[in-house]
Amino acid sequence: xxxxxxxxxxxxxxxxxxxxxxxxxxxxxxxxxxxxxxxxxxxxxxxxxxxxxxxxxxxxxxxxxxxxxxxxxxxxxxxxxxxxxxxxxxxxxxxxxxxxxxxxxxxxxxxxxxxxxxxxxxxxxxxxxxxxxxxxxxxxxxxxxxxxxxxxxxxxxxxxxxxxxxxxxxxxxxxxxxxxxxx
Length: 183
Ligand SMILES: Cc1cc2nc3c(=O)[nH]c(=O)nc-3n(C[C@H](O)[C@H](O)[C@H](O)COP(=O)(O)O)c2cc1C
Description:
Elements: E1 4-8, H1 19-30, E2 35-38, H2 39-42, H3 50-59, E3 62-68, H4 76-85, E4 103-109, H5 128-137, E5 140-147, H6 158-182
Parallel strand pairs: 1-2, 1-3, 3-4, 4-5
Helix pairs in contact: 1-6
Flavin mononucleotide binds next to helix 1.
């Protein structure tokens, strides 16, 4: 059985998240053996424990990055985690082979509806930094699971909140299926 690490890059997962919170809670139940790495709980001060994070990565076969899209990229917390943890001698460089062969799967949400991403700016354009990082570090990029239209502004609208709850649970289910297919 392959070991799964799910890293949440939402900066306020417990206190200010709708979709990512549901997705992470569902995954914890659906994949009880997975290691859950909630960066916002561990590092509210953005001071990453590099050794601990490298150890989690080293022990994993499948690495899932779960995050909301912030300004067409990942949140600063997840970017900081990558900058601190993916260092020469660990993830790259002649001695840095720790990530080689591990599977990388992205799982993200946007406030904009899925129709906002089209030929001019496709959803795939949001994944570039991770695809390239996987290539550089020897990880196998396994694609993404994506849900759009989980808008911050809609949280207080009961009808929209119900719809967002449904798509968030459905996202977790799709993500589970994808992870299971890699195991
Ligand atoms: C600082 C910030 C920047 C955002 N930038 C984008 C963006 O570039 N594109 C987009 O579709 N949504 C954007 N959003 C909306 C989030 O992607 C959306 O609220 C999130 O995916 C919902 O997940 P959550 O309920 O777990 O917070 C942004 C939200 C914040 C707070």
